[in-house]
Structures are given as C-alpha cells and as structure tokens.
Amino acid sequence: MKSLYTTSVTANGGRNGKVKSENGILELDVRSPKALGGKDDAFANPEMLFAAGYASCFGSALSLVIGKSKIEAGEPTVTAQVSLGQIENGGFGLAVEMDVNIPNVTIEEAQELTEKAHQVCPYSNATRNNIEVKLAVTNN
Q1: Which residues lie closer than 8 Å to 128 by C-beta, 6 or more apart?
Q2: Burial class for 39, CB neighbours closer than 10 Å (0-12, 13-18, 19+)
Q3: Whole-angstrom Cα distance, residue 64 to residue 58?
Q4: Per-residue pLDDT tens for 25-46?
Q5: Which pairs from 89-96 meet CB under 8 Å and 24+ separation?
Q6: Rounded CA gap, 113 and 63, in Å?
Q7: Helical H runs in 3-106?
Q8: What local confidence, expressed as pLDDT, does residue 42 receive?
Q9: Domains plus CATH for the chain?
Q10: CB neighbourhood size of 40 (10 A)
Q11: pTM of this structure
C-alpha cells in the first residue's frame, strides 16, 4: 500500500487512562463504561472512538460514491454502533451496526450507494471478514 497519510495517537493507562494525538488536537481521558465495570459513562472509551472514526470515514466514502454516481441525494448521515463482546476463543471482539440515511433517493438507490461505500471505506476494508458489520439503510 502506498501511504497517503499517517498519524499516531499514544495511549497511557489502557481503558482507564489518557489518549493524545501527535499534534495535540485529540487529548482525552478514557474510562471503562459502566457496562464493563466502570464507575459511570461520563468518559470516552475505545469503542466510542472506533465508532466515531468508522462513522465519519464511512460518511466520506458515501459522499465520494454519491458524487461519482451523479445521483441527486440529500446529505447522508451515518451512525455506527460498536459492540464489544466475548468470542469463542475466550478473547474479545467487536461488531458494528451501521445506520445509513440518504435522503431524497429511492431505498434501492440508498442501498446501492451504501454497498458501494462499504467497498471503498478504509475502515470497512480493514474490518472485512474480521468483524461482523451490518448495514441498515433508510432514505427519509
């Protein structure tokens, strides 16, 4: 792969620590959510950060695909729901449900555009055949 962009984020303290990007723009305390034994849900966590990255990346891929298709669509929105769970080998894995809304198109067009974006998106390509990603599409 020919790299087009590289960045780095450093984590200290794991799920109960801090993350900071190399340029200092991203600097957050992270904590385990209440469902995983944390005190509360008042902090960011790794799954939340993954969901933010995937949703925004998928949204960009979708905008690219819409632009190339010449279909007149409204501004799409993408919501990524990321779940953490235990897998068969005793380790942990992720699953994603991607809710995609593309207004002003038919449901068939929205489905086709979403599938094409799923082939283009770097997060989708990184996770393909590794974690379950469900796509739900609406057009309102």
Answers
A1: none
A2: exposed
A3: 10
A4: 999 999 999 999 999 999 999 9
A5: 93/131, 94/47, 94/50, 94/127, 94/131, 95/131, 95/132, 95/133, 95/134, 96/51, 96/54, 96/127, 96/131, 96/132, 96/133, 96/134
A6: 9
A7: 46-69
A8: 95
A9: 1-44 (2.20.25.10), 46-138 (3.30.300.20)
A10: 9
A11: 0.94
Residues recorded for the chain: 140
Percent of the chain with pLDDT over 70: 100
Q: Are 92 and 128 in contact (CB under 8 A)?
A: no
The answer to whether 49 touches 72, Cβ cutoff 8 Å, is no
**pLDDT (tens digit per residue) in 60-116:** 999 999 999 989 999 999 999 999 999 999 999 999 999 999 999 999 999 999 999
Placement of tokens 């200290």 in the chain: 12
Paired strand residues for 44 = 30
Tokens 């086709």 identify what position? 112
How is residue 40 written in tokens?
Answer: 């509360």
